[in-house]
Amino acid sequence: MRKGELEARILILVTLALVAFGIVMVYSTTSASAAVGGANPNYYLERQSVYAVLGITLMVIAQRWDYRRLMALAPMLVLTSLGLLVAVLVVGPAINGARRWISVGPAVFQPSELAKLSLAVWMAAHLARHPAPRTMHELARPIGALAGLYAVLLIVEPDLGTAIALLVMLAAMLLVAGTPARVLGAALTVAGALGTAAIWFEPYRRARFFAFLHPWHDAQGTGFQIVQAMIGMGSGGIFGVGLGQGVQKIFYLPEAHTDMMLANIGEELGLLGVMTVIGAYLLFAYAGLKVALGCRDPFGKRLAVGLTVLVCGQAAVNVAAVMGVAPLTGIPLPFLSYGGSSLVVLLASVGILLNIAGRGNAKAGSVRDRSRRDGGARPVGARSRGRDDGARSVRDTRRVAGSRRGSARS
């Protein structure tokens, strides 16, 4: 088995298993409430299936398309994602008090999902061309400035959860690139202080934060979603009440098919189902980080880390929020929650990871050999090995000649 092939197979199997399981759970979560309300029970199932097919198609294309070409596309991706983040604030419809979506015919697109991938590609390209920042001053420009611009646009939507996901991803890429831990710690402290200010000066974020601290103090108000998630998780027991048999999803648990998907899994499939999902993400993290570790291309190594942390970091934040150990941020559960933009972008990201697994260590390093008439390349160190062999043969010839002269004298 070639190097990186095992990791690629793990990534494919885990990803496709999560996508298939997600489609089943989306139908289980939405069909009952739709039937009770007189709507089409298959509405979300059909749309999620279409998004899954589109995402898997992009995954296959990304797996076959050389990831190193993304370095040249990084500036264009950043400008496009920033333009879309500005456009959604202007033309995006207000849904539940937020402007996060752009409607294009029957499709609904969330620009923040593209922003995650764009910033990961740009960050990997920048760190591959430049040394890792080692002081706060070096970190501030251009990485800090660009990350701050993304964060401001996301918070204005408002979408603090995506801003947190970007911060976690950038911190992991900087750590792998060689930025000192003390510099990262100082930067995260500043980001945490600014995030706290963003929570405090926005009434709904402040209410959500205090609801996380004391959800039962207002179980019918600000703490309603957390309380219902706890009830769903706890009522499932070890093996759950059975697939499709949950009741929390029927007008009790808000956003059961998106942010709170894990609570529905816990109710219907129990602790066993929740631990299986968490184990799948841990296996994904293992395979993705192994791909990064085995990649000899600096751009590929940093990009693999960023994409792996992007998937597993969002999963960790969502799991913590549903279990009540972190505030609700609105981050969906990757591959499982309903949402076309998230599913398509994440599947394309997995395709890039698979490409890195196949190409990141496929070719040995080579340099241009000026001594060759065709101007072709030679493996690194080939000329030095040839010189060593030649020198060794000269030394052997002299040694043989010296021994013959000594025998002649005797």
Strand content: under 5%
Distance between the termini: 60 Å
Taken together, the total number of domains comes to 2
Overall average residue pLDDT: 85
The total count of strands amounts to 4
| Helical stretch tally | 13
Task: Report the principal-axis shape.
Answer: globular
| Helical content band | 55-70%
| Strand order in the largest sheet | 1-2
User: Would you list the SSEs in sequence order as H and E?
Assistant: HHHEEHHHHHHHHHEEH
Report a brief summary of the structure.
This protein is mostly helical and 410 residues long. Helix content is 69%, strand content 3%. A hairpin with an 8-residue loop joins strand 3 (366-368) and strand 4.
Q: What keywords describe this structure?
A:
410 residues, mainly alpha, 2 domains, two-stranded antiparallel sheet, two-stranded antiparallel ribbon, 13 helices, 4 strands, disordered C terminus
